[in-house]
Known about the structure:
By secondary structure, the chain is α/β, with parallel strands linked by helices. Helices cover 31% and strands 24% of the residues. Keywords: Hydrolase.
Amino acid sequence: MPRPVRIAICQFASEPPRPDDRHAQETNVHRNLARTASFVADAAKQRADVIVFPEYWLTNIMADHLHLATEEEEFVEDLQQLAKKYGVDIVAGTIVEKSAGDNDKLFNTSRYVSKTGEVLGTYRKKNLWHPEKDYLTRCVREHTTFDTPKYRAGLLACWDLAWPEAFRPLLLDKVDIVFIPTCWVADDVGPIGEKWDPKAEGERAYLDSLVITRAYETECCIVFVNCGGPRSQGYMGRSAVAMPFLGCVAKLPEPDEQLVVVEIDLDILPDAEATYKIREDKMRQLRWAQSEENDHYRD
């Protein structure tokens, strides 16, 4: 029986901070939040079940603007109101937050807000890109899934995509869709990478292959949403949706800001699981490992 889900990919071009934002009543965060509302409204008109925003979509890159870090859950109420107003679930990209319970450490946090306004899932980025390690704290909690009325979901972010280990707990928990808000630009590779790949063609191929590979090996739908912006500033786009058997079912190959609604059928996932048996084999490996450990203690 078909299990259709309509997913709105929003390749949002975040307005960067202005020099006067530090003391202004309205900052780029507020301007980006206002633009977010228009995209949610558009997704609702296209009957989307969920809209997904990229990493850092409210603030843009924050390395030189840490004053824009918000208090924990500061914008959650705004997102809850948007979700309820338009009847659309929202994957709220990522927001850099000060954690009151962790001495104001900064975490890169993503949330899934349902159309009823309930926060169903929260994820703090675990695999930080190298420059992020200077100001963000990596989360040490295990990755977990959460249930929505239509599917079981998981949240990851950006550089997590490069790590198969990030997906394994979600695989074992029978995830249906993994949402991956991302801010991945061509100059992330630095001067060394640019020497070998000056047009970022290899980097684009890397992104494309990772999205498809993770869909197959996790036996789920991967929704990868990258930031939008001018190609001249290194933005690559490549937001995509991938499924086992089908590969890439939707892609935004250009970096310009755009919203596209994709309909998928999750009924494909049990067939993928029955064919590839990756989850089954992984569970068997874990049982063997546990059995060997128990034998060791008995000896």
